[in-house]
Design goal:
By secondary structure, the chain is mainly beta. The chain is built from no helices and 28 strands. Strand 11 and strand 12 form a beta hairpin. Its main location: nucleus.
């Protein structure tokens, strides 16, 4: 696809658009095998899509509590998600029979980050209550608690051995999962930018890079070992401080983000050069964007969900 030298060896086109939602899609997640994608929306619905057949399979509802930050677990047909109404409990749902398996109470304000371990049943959550909590799917009790100085964003690394916390939109702290109670083993301080907040943090699949999303019109790529800012990517529209999801391609070579005008911007992570702007024909800001972990496709979402396929040019 986008070749390593930054030349497009193929482009992507929107293959299908789904209009299953009446409000914005706030999150989606591909299954580890890449065969399905599940979305959560501000209209309180959970939609399961079949990626191979390219069609929606099922719609479930979480009318009472709302649904946000939906994530597949490693068990087949189960997800965790945060609530955006009534309380701030995290819920563990079986898609098979649409029944809750477990609840994870503890946060006292809205959950703004949720990351599943790539290797086991551990997950972490970050909240506006200025804490990060560590959980195990098998127990409703919090397994660990970190008090921070501000709003956190957090994510596991690809090996599930460490996790990163972005705190107060100015610091990245790295924790060893086995000894997180001893505090971070590394802290990287960034230049604070009062014009925007950090809204997300992701590791590249090779574990070497960390991508920081903001609600401004730039994202930052940092070296995961040294904490050095390698590139700041900008030049995309986000005038209303919308939370836009940025993502790596699975080969860790390229970084993609949507914008408020329905376009997707792509950069080469090594050179920092913008290599493509793709028109998603989205009707609103592209709040969610992720590459399929196993197949050469990606998805983007506003209140509509779009599946993208490569168009190979000879």
């Amino acid at each position: 696809y986008f070749r390593r030298d930054g030349v497009l060896s193929c482009c992507f086109r929107v293959a299908k658009v789904f209009r299953e939602n009446s409000d914005k899609i706030n999150c989606f997640d591909f299954s580890p095998n890449g065969e399905t994608v599940i979305s959560s929306s501000d209209d309180d619905s959970i939609v399961l899509y079949d990626c191979q057949e390219g069609k929606p399979k099922r719609t479930l509802y979480s009318k009472k509590y709302g649904v946000d930050l939906i994530r597949y677990t490693h068990a087949a047909n189960t997800v965790v998600y945060s609530s955006n109404k009534i309380d701030d409990t995290i819920r563990y749902l079986s898609l098979h029979d649409n029944k809750y398996i477990r609840y994870f109470p503890g946060h006292s304000k809205r959950v703004v980050a949720l990351s599943m371990s790539p290797v086991d049943d551990t997950f972490i959550s970050g909240s506006l209550d200025k804490t990060i909590r560590l959980w195990d799917l098998r127990s409703p009790n919090c397994q660990g608690l970190m008090h921070l100085q501000g709003k956190p964003v957090c994510s596991f690394d690809p090996e599930g051995l460490i996790f990163a916390a972005g705190v107060n939109s100015e610091m990245v702290k790295l924790y060893d999962l086995r000894s997180f109670d001893k505090g971070p083993f590394a802290t990287f301080k960034m230049q604070y930018d009062r014009t925007c907040e950090w809204t997300g943090l992701k590791f590249s699949n090779d574990g070497k890079l960390i991508l920081i999303s903001t609600n401004g019109s730039f994202i930052r790529l940092i070296d995961a070992f040294k904490g050095v800012v390698m590139h700041t990517f900008g030049g995309y529209a986000n005038s209303k401080a919308v939370t836009l999801e940025a993502s790596f391609t699975p080969d860790s070579q390229f970084i993609m983000i949507g914008s408020e005008d329905g376009k997707i911007h792509v950069w080469n992570g090594e050179s920092g050069i913008k290599v493509a702007v793709l028109d998603g024909k989205h009707t609103g800001p592209i709040t969610c964007l992720q590459f399929n972990p196993k197949f050469m496709t990606f998805a983007s979402a506003c209140s509509n969900m779009a599946f993208w396929l490569p168009t190979i040019d000879d």
